[in-house]
Amino acid sequence: MMRTRTHASSIKKRLLWTLLAPLCVILLVLGLSGAWLVQRNVENSSDRVLSGSLQAIGETLAMQEGYITLDLPPSALGMLENVDRDNVYYSVIYRGKVITGYPELEADQSTNSLESIRFRDGFFHGVPIRIAMEAKLVPQLDSPIIVQVAETTKNRRAVAHRMMIYLMTSELFLLLVIASLIFFAVDWGLRPLAALRRTVEARIAQPELDFASLPLKDVPQDVQPFVSAFNTLLRHVEATFDTLRRFTSDASHQLRAPLAVVRTHVELLERRAKASPEVQTSLGDISQAVKALQRLIVQLISLAKAERPSDGGALETFDLVECTAAASRAYAARAFDRGMELSFETDRERLPVCGSAVLAGEMIANLLDNCVRYGRDGGHIVIRIPDAQGRLEIEDDGPGVPAEQRERVFERFYRLPHNSDSEGSGLGLSIVQALGKRLGATIALETPASGRGLKAVIQFQCP
Hints:
Order of helices and strands: HEEHEEEEEHHHHEHEEHEEHEE
CATH class of the domain at 13-163: Alpha Beta
CATH architecture of the domain at 13-163: 2-Layer Sandwich
Number of helices: 9
Strand order of the largest sheet: 4-3-7-6-5
Oligomer: single chain
Number of strands: 14
Helix content: 40-55%
Shape: rod-shaped
CATH topology of the domain at 13-163: Beta-Lactamase
Largest sheet: 5 strands, antiparallel
């Protein structure tokens, strides 16, 4: 036999993922923004050095004896030296002609107008370079002189790469530290739940089930609603167990009495089989006891069926008029035997309601059985469907039920004092109530308009 394992989610894992996922997103955003800032800072710092070299060259431009002169100071290009030994190039251009420098370092013609220093990227013999350009206006010249200084980008990339590595290492270390702290924090935060689990497991190990409420004083505030609901469930389970115990005890008592009568009279029959009057009396007692036992067993089975959990599906629809008429016909003969008049009053040929015709028929049958069994001889039983709202009334003119005991008569095996000598087990109304809950119907006991007897009102759900 193969077993399928269900992978239930863990609260601890959910909390860890809930906390770590946003943290990773935040660190990723910080890493991307940090990388952008690193790149910008490296570019700006290098560009400032490059612009300083450019300005140092431009300040030495002059016009002497009809010639453009340039006094290139050593510090102009020396400030660009670095550990990565980047190559430095420059050019001085007037009217598109290179006066000095590297002719391969072409000028951007859009820079002829006087403006601030501009930077651009380019290539020099296939090697990427960063170029700084400035248009300088020299006296006695009608056009500006374009000065360019270029530097290979090896040092820039190396500095940015090192800073990126430092940034990533710092973020990974920060992630590990925070993840470790979160792990221990979540574990510490869930300790009350672990203690609560151990408390419940300790009760399971006990030979007798303990339905006492779980303590709330050490339970975190967020878990208290769950524990309170669990305590409520424990109380319901305890009440169910108590009801089951009482039901078992009462049912056993009710079953033992008829069986004892049967056994006693059987023994009497065996000793005095020839005494005809005694035999007849014994046979009568046996018959009554067997009938009582049979009725009790039938009612117990009905009660078990009524309290069986439903499948949770939608209720069916049945005709209340037809169901009630069928139950009335079944009890008409019994009512006639006791001289009772049974009538069914309705002005409708059909009334659809929600539920099960079989269970509703059992409800009506139990109510009619009570009317016939406990009603007065020669009395009246009226079954009435007064409107189209799913209301059913069953009324008799018997001794009735006192108002203060109308709730108790729905308890199992409870019998009114004036009915204790009559046949019955006290399960009829319990079965009716259980069937009503199963059908989603309500039942109430009222006093008839005549002021005598009892009226049972069942309210079914209409589709």
